[in-house]
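Need residues for this backbone.
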């Protein structure tokens, strides 16, 4: 992302997730959520605080200056919504045309990763994988990352779906500079990014997450504080695991039915009349197929992203010492058989 030296290989932001479903945009009321018990999601993600909508009214008057790295399918819409909501935004991407589009909306262009964070209160990072998060946030002595340009007390928000190990490593580096670190993985797809209706799963210190709430609310309509560092990432990884599992189960069921002489369309129309065998995947099969065909890297790109998300789930289980034989079987036995055909073929 930094042409002022060896190019950091960050070409665009995190791609639209596999089967990014509106299912998580449920009808929790944001107002008054602190006044009632929050649901319990598990040992790592203890209490979920559904952040009050009143925070937005109180906080948006604060003149937060924002840096933003990664202007691909997701990041472009997210950064545009920050500009439209009146934030002072500086943007960074390797592709000049992506930067120019945001500048036309009112953002400032930054010359490097360190430059995009200079004099900024919050930097949002939306890239593809662990290595790109490290490259953008930490960098090298020759091409320093965004943390180098921040002053103590500023906040780095990594909205990419990456491992707990990556979050820990970068947060430790941030701490040496007095910079706060928050993981804020999101769901909702490129349409949600464009429309400002994303859902964010947030992990990090309460003071930092409260401070960045107006920033996230400018890009989404649900913000969940899941716990301390890594909790938001864990929820997103689990969400992706469930999503992929539904898709792969539907794929196999469709193939079994076809072998028995039942067409895909007939099977789905019958299954979707009830709740027992249907799922969001069976009800969204054609949309999933369209998404796959229109993915920037085609069906092979969707398979690659599936592999990334399944391996993140496997690594999360290992990190937490949880036995997860289904995840291991999906990685070892199912994933290799997908080839480049895609998930819906």
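Answer:
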């Amino acid at each position: 992302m930094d042409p002022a030296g060896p190019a950091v290989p960050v070409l665009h932001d995190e791609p639209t997730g596999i089967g990014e479903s509106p299912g998580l945009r449920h009808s929790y009321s944001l107002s008054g959520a602190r006044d009632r018990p929050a649901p319990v999601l598990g040992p790592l993600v203890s209490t979920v605080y559904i952040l009050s909508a009143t925070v937005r009214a109180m906080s948006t008057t604060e003149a937060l200056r924002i840096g933003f790295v990664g202007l691909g399918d997701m990041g472009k819409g997210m950064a545009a919504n920050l500009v439209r909501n009146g934030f002072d935004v500086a943007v960074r991407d390797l592709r000049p045309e992506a930067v120019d589009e945001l500048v036309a909306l009112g953002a400032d262009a930054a010359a490097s990763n360190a430059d995009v964070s200079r004099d900024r209160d919050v930097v949002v990072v939306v890239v593809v994988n662990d290595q790109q998060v490290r490259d953008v946030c930490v960098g090298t002595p020759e091409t320093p990352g965004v943390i180098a340009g921040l002053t103590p007390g500023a906040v780095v928000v990594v909205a990419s779906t990456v491992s707990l190990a990556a979050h820990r490593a970068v947060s430790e580096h941030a701490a040496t500079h007095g910079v706060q670190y928050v993981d804020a993985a999101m769901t909702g797809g490129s349409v949600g990014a464009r429309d400002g209706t994303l859902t964010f799963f947030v992990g990090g210190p309460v003071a930092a997450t409260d401070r960045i709430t107006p920033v996230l609310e400018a890009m989404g309509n649900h913000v969940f504080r899941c716990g301390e560092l890594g909790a938001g990432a864990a929820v997103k990884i689990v969400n992706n695991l469930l999503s992929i599992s539904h898709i792969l189960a539907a794929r196999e069921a469709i193939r079994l039915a076809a072998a028995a002489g039942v067409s895909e369309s007939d099977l789905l129309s019958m299954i979707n009349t009830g709740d027992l065998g249907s799922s969001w995947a069976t009800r969204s099969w054609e949309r999933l197929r369209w998404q796959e065909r229109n993915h920037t890297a085609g069906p092979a790109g969707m398979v690659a992203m599936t592999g990334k998300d399944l391996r993140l789930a496997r690594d999360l289980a290992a990190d937490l010492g949880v036995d997860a034989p289904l995840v291991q079987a999906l990685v070892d036995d199912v994933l290799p058989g997908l080839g480049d055909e895609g998930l819906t073929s």
